[in-house]
Fold these 2 entries.
Entry 1:
Amino acid sequence: MLDTALLPLSLKESRNKIFSMANLLKNFGTTRIVLLHVLGGNNKRKKERVRKQIEEIANKYREIGFQVEMFFKEGSVANTVVNFATEMEVNYIALCWQKKWLIKRTLLGNIDADMIRMTDLPVFIYKKDYYLFKNWDLNKVLYATDFQGTDTKVMPYLKNKDFQADTLYFLHVGSRAPDPDTEKKRREKVDKQLQSLAEECTQAYNRVEKLNVSGNVKNQIVRKAKSRGVDLIVVGKQDKAKGWDQLLGSTAESLPHKANCSIFIVPGMKTRRSVLV
Amino acid sequence: MNWIYKNLVFIASLFIVFFFVGLGIYNPDLLSQVSTFIHQRIIDYFGWGYLVAAFFFLVFNIWFAMSRYGEIKLGKEYEKPQYSYFAWFSMMFAAGMGIGMIFWGVAEPMSHYLNPPGYIADSSGEAAKYAMRYSFFHWGLQPWGVYITMSMAIAYFSFRRGMPPLISSCFYPLLGDRIYSSIGYLIDVLAVFATIFGIATSLGLGAMQITSGLGFVFGFESSFSAIFILICIVTVLFMISSMTGLDKGIQILSKTNILLATLLLGFLLLVGPTTYIFNIFTSTIADYFSSLFQMSLSTHPFRGYEWTQSWTLFYWAWWIAWSPFVGLFVASISRGRTIREFILGALLVPTLLAFLWFSVFGGAAFQIELNTGASIAEIASEDVSIVLFKLYSYYPLSNMLSIVTVLLLGVFFVTSADSATYVLSMMTSNGRLTPPASKKLVWGLTVSATATILLYSGGLEALQKMAIAAALPFTFIMLFMCKSLLKALNYEYTQELNIEENQE
């Protein structure tokens, strides 16, 4: 399912981070990596230097055990990456997340965030720093579900035998009901839904746990992931953002800014744009 | 121990009351200094916030009434309104602002006419227009916008969601079970604090005004013993009314009030300058609505800022501080109405009645002031309590009018104190709709004793300022209450009503 990954590189990423990510990608069952660099400008010497650097990375990836292809494109970075990923029929896009401060990303934008917003492919965002990350295995994974259409898209990935982790948490962050009685019923209903999801995955993990909380969705996902020492958050992405989310970005889009672990975003449905493409 | 835990709000509130009353007796100057300092700082630094908040509440209510949530009932689906429209409006009006309007119906337009902001020439045509417009503004849509926000939230969470009618209950969607902890108690204690000090000062200062009005009519000097006797009579009456229960006591009194008020209003309208009054009514309504937006948000920072502080901002703080009491009371009489019906009814009818009241009494006063050369405006700026009786002296049957007015004031007084006792007892009995008689007795006597003692020691106005200071936390509490209500209604609409529709 996650056999081929497109890895866009700006070459501003630290080498150690790029290589440590490669070890993690193995947990997804990935065997083929497509490296892509989107060029800016026509400086021949610079192009040559970039080619050499990408080749170095490709060789290192080959040493780890991946099949690697390299491509160079020109144009708007986010658009080019998204279109190329569709064209190459990769299974997902893997990004080495580079943190940008709020002011910087407000003024200059954030290409990674644009890619997450625009693509209809799953996106893996690698956030761990090399020096903090000694263990290449995925230990704890948290799936934040809203029981909407994204479950049908995400569950196949979680049940996939290539997707290897020790513990899986199912988290639902709900809106609290207006009174204690209704809230009790709501929580019972959520527990049942979480239980049915958990039962689907009991075979694939050593431990499956359910977390049923209420409050702010983004904050609670980040908080629970941090308190449980989660390595990877899995979320579904819905294209139909409502209310403030239209302005501030959906949960999936804003999680990479807030969470301090890696994130795997699975799109829920095809957008009109991707159908046209 | 269990009793203490169950009565935590009651005990904490009584403790706070005794502390401030004790301070008012022991050192009224210190209480005055502290309260003046807090009150003035809040008005200085946060005055603009009151304007914005009051306008927000008004817009929020109008939007709510027009929105998809308007159809939702403040009660179970099968419930019908408990009171008729007449009883509902009467009680709402009596609790909300009845007594204040009797005092200020003549005094406020006259006072603004004589002392407008610096940039308007006093006693001019422009000042008269301004006086009427701002009298409408201070007693119009905004105060009811504040009250409705509070009462709608309480009514929704109590009658539809089955929670106790407490202000803390409104925060369940935001705080969850934490409403049963210190933060919930704090909100309820603050509401009791604002209510008891508000009603105690209202009772004390009102008794003082009634006595001086009576003295003017019947020719005797107002003294502490006269005020004391009046407070005693009012206390006995409202305690009797309170013990008979909400259904009987307050309802009968409120209906009597409205009939008496209509009688006075009708008399002055017919015997007074009818055409002149209607001219003022229609032109001030036009003036009010065309400048509502500007009045709602302007603190006049360049000129007239002090006037805005001492009138508009004072009023706004007062309405907000008074809102826990009125909100809880109005909620308790609005069970079974839809949100739309509740908002439109509570917003438009009392406002229209207030406009009519100010037009009749203000218009009658203007006609005499401008045409006979009487110095009504001057009297208004000197002593608010006698200006209405002074106006009557230019009308036939003036003694009869004065007696009816005193009666009206007395009944309004008893109604306010009765409903406040009921609300205080309810708030300190974990929201029981039929609070125990013992708590009614405790709060009734505490209110009267506080008013009498501080009137004697001279700390009553300081206490009023403390009550108004509670408006600051309540502004924030109410803003969060709006968010909580919206969240709850959104949940109901999307999760529950949709499920029911699907099941059908």
Entry 2:
Amino acid sequence: MIPLLEIKNLTIRFFTDDGVIHAVEDFSFSLPKNKTLGIVGESGSGKSVTALSILRLIPSPGKILRGQILFEGTDILTLPESELYKIRGNRISMIFQDPMTSLNPLFTVGYQIAEAVTAHQKVSRQEAKSRALALLEAVKIPEAKKRFNAYPHQLSGGMRQRVMIAMALSCNPSLLIADEPTTALDVTVQKQILELIAELQKDFQMSVILITHNLGIISEVCDQVLVMYAGRCVEEGPVSSIFRAPRHPYTFGLLRSVEKMIPIPGQLPILKESAVACTFAPRCFLAAEKCRQGEPPLFDVEENHQSRCWFHDQVQI
Amino acid sequence: MIKGRTEWHIAKRQLRKNKLAVFGFWLLAVLYFLMIFADFIAPYDQAFSDGEKNFHPPVAIHFIDAEGHFHLTPFVYNTIERPKFSRHYLPDPSHRYPIHFFYKNTTLVEHSLLFLFPTSVHLLGVDEPARIFIFGTDDSGRDVFTRILYGSRVALTIGIIGVLVSYALGVLIGALSGYYAGKPIPLGWWKGWKPSIDVDNWIQRSGEMLLMFPSLYLLLGLRALIPEHLSSAKVYFLIVILLSFIRWPAIARVVRAMVLSIREREFVLAAEAIGCSNFRIIWRHIVPNTFSQIIVFVTLSIPSFILGEAFLSYLDLGIREPQASWGNMLTQAQDVVALTHYPWILLPGFFIFITVLGFNLLGDGLRDALDPKMRS
């Protein structure tokens, strides 16, 4: 069975005035139907760029240098613009970090959801409106009828994120990309939104890519985890396996920083040339001469579990 | 749901607090009221002239007659030019001509009030041969007050129609320019060569070509391309088009700058992600977000259209007689001798002044009211 989404050797670079920034390097993963994949990493590790590349919305000066993004078997990167419009918001939807700024302040939320409906379906205004109302109810906005005519500034952050989710679901997408959907919300609301996403994932039978830097979120809703560091996948595996026994010192460091409040020393590098060593080596407690001489490949450590570390069998809790 | 105050509520309150802006608003309100009812309020019509009363000064309105009796209704005296052709007018106190309100002046052509109701009733009037020249007359004995009212129809509408046309053009071009800035549109693919067109660059550079010329000379030059003698209505639209043509680059530049910042906002990315077309994103999501600023620019650029029309008409290249326009009325004030002897012919200039003042006060107030940093 072909996976819903398969990314192969994706390489993205930003051609800025200060040089070429290697944002994503030789990145691959696959996502089966009806599964939730969590992508974790620090700010700047290339999570959002990867997500945007799936819709081909990388901001300029960014360019996809090579790779394939196969969605249901077709390569998104070779599609003409006109075909892309049919995928965006229709087959693949995305929600963003900050619901405060992701809604147009000039239109009512109902209008904006209806717009998302009419963007892809030939329905009458009345139908779009009733569909929008149904969506508002699906994302559990209380008094949906009243909220329908509210402007974004009249709603709280959590409600706005619900509206964004309603817009994303308007065409029954098979893939929902949630780019840090809870980062701008307070903790109690975060939990509600996550539960909502998990619930809708089952109801709408979609796959979800959840991007976050919060490991707690991953453990709650995801099936599979992918840890990104400096544009690379450093570890990938099932949630249970990774949380029980991380096999990359970075994942280990992330878990320890959450559990024991011990930070990982150093900073995420901004790569301007191809790496010749392990990118994590400068911050790694296991780093040895070998790490500085060559970049490790992805090792299969367990079933479905891979780690990009020479010493993956020495990482222990 | 939080019953929040919208941007407009806040702006309206701010505007009310600004005394000068409120003054500007009421100034304009009065002027527009006079314009709408011009043919009713004016005692004569714009073509009316009394050949025996050239350069007649404003008539004196009396309550007390020559014998010292007080009269409740104000009245005027007929005046006689003594000596002939001297343009000195002496009142003849032998007969009083009371001022009638809602006076049916059958000597004039019927006018249609609000373009609907044909009537020959005017707000004020006196019996012949006396005249009620509130602001005096010009060189051919036409009532300046009447012609100022009729002229306001040109001045007060050309500004608004002018900004509508020029801003429609400027926003259209500027929005395209801003949205495609730094994103050349590919034109296809041909033997390994990928031609693309940098819309932004083309628009901005051609706009700058127009901005290079001093605008008044450009206006005159463009006017020279077009036949000199045209009907007033044609000239009116011609002026609008000419002025819009030389103004769009400045507007397009401002709009481009606004679009550049708005297109980076997250809701634009969100709109792209739900599959909106570029066209829809520009017109439904970006352009409406520029409106609060555009309104300010619009208000502040209305005066330049009024002045532009007055300038062309003053040089006899715009609205022509007998059609009244404040600009062509001022043509007579070119003559310094006439100006010193008959200063009332400068009154259209005063009206231009207060109209421009009104728009500027209102525009300044709007700018402060819509700018969150200026709010108190």
